[in-house]
Amino acid sequence: MLIGLFKVLLRLWCWLELAVLTLVMYVLSFIPRELFGTIYDRLFLLWTRVFVLAMGVELKVHQHYAGKLPEHYIVIANHPSAFEDIGMPSLFKAFSVAKIGVRDWFLVGRISAAAGTIYLKRSDKNSRAAAGNEIIEALRDKKNIAIYPEGGCKGRRINQFLYGIFGISIETGVPIVPVFLHYEAQEDFEWQGQTLPGKILEILFAANKTANYHIHEPFDPAEFDSRESYCEHVHQHYLQWQDKYLL
């Protein structure tokens, strides 16, 4: 009983801390990023980690690689749920790439923009090209990038990958760190067209809130002569991991 009470009090504290952090970051988001970008990045990392705790999700990291990860990288992952929008940045110090609609989300939109998120309109060729140039510039400035190569939140099963980020990896020479995301309560976490508040509520009341983040050996772009072969190679690995982790 005492343990249960402690967990409830801890969760309430996390929500209170999250509310205060959200308000602070929202106010700071009106200040030009060049004046406090490094500080805001640290606050954003803290905010995502507190958000994970407030949601009560047990985020488990599984390291399937030898040695250490590279300091400079592009991290990719499958995108079955809305949860990875806070789960991935809570683990990886990387600037995210997101659909342009995220920028209009209440509170979160301004916070993500201030955190350096790169936006694109997937249906607009010019927008995709502009986002690609921003990604290349960020990588050449030694920044890390986080992106979902399926091109959006497509559910628990792996869909076809888009070529873009693989071409950028070859052009910049930056390796790709692959992460396979597996939620044990797959249906409760899976994005199925709900509203964002509705999805958050489903995750909050999920019977099993274990999130497995499987980090695999990085891919070296020097081993591939085209973005198509690179993309296909990585995609095949994800299909194998899907069979291993989801079935």
Spell out the blueprint of helices and strands:
Elements: H1 2-28, H2 37-55, E1 58-64, E2 74-77, H3 84-91, E3 95-99, H4 108-114, E4 118-120, H5 125-140, E5 145-147, H6 164-172, E6 176-183, H7 186-189, H8 196-204, E7 210-216, H9 227-246
Parallel strand pairs: 1-7, 2-5, 2-6, 3-4, 3-5
Antiparallel strand pairs: 6-7
How many H/I helices? 9
Radius of gyration of CA atoms, rounded to a whole number: 18 Å
The rounded distance between the terminal residues' Cα atoms is: 36 Å
As a percent range, the share of strand residues is: 5-15%
Average pLDDT level: 92
Tally of discrete structural domains: 1
Derived from helix and strand composition plus strand pairing, the structural class reads alpha/beta
Model description:
The chain is α/β, with parallel strands linked by helices and 247 residues long. The protein has one domain. The protein is 48% helix and 15% strand. It contains nine helices and seven strands, in the order H-H-E-E-H-E-H-E-H-E-H-E-H-H-E-H. Strands 1-7-6-2-5-3-4 form a seven-stranded mixed β-sheet, sandwiched between helices. Helix 2 crosses helix 3, helix 5 runs parallel beside helix 6 and helix 6 packs across helix 9. The longest helix is centred in the N-terminal third of the chain and has 27 residues. It is globular, with a radius of gyration of 18 Å. The N and C termini lie far apart (36 Å). 31% of the residues are buried. The mean pLDDT is 92.
Summarize the structure.
By secondary structure, this protein is of the alpha/beta class. The chain has helices spanning 2-28, 37-55, 84-91, 108-114, 125-140, 164-172, 186-189, 196-204, 227-246, and strands at residues 58-64, 74-77, 95-99, 118-120, 145-147, 176-183, 210-216.
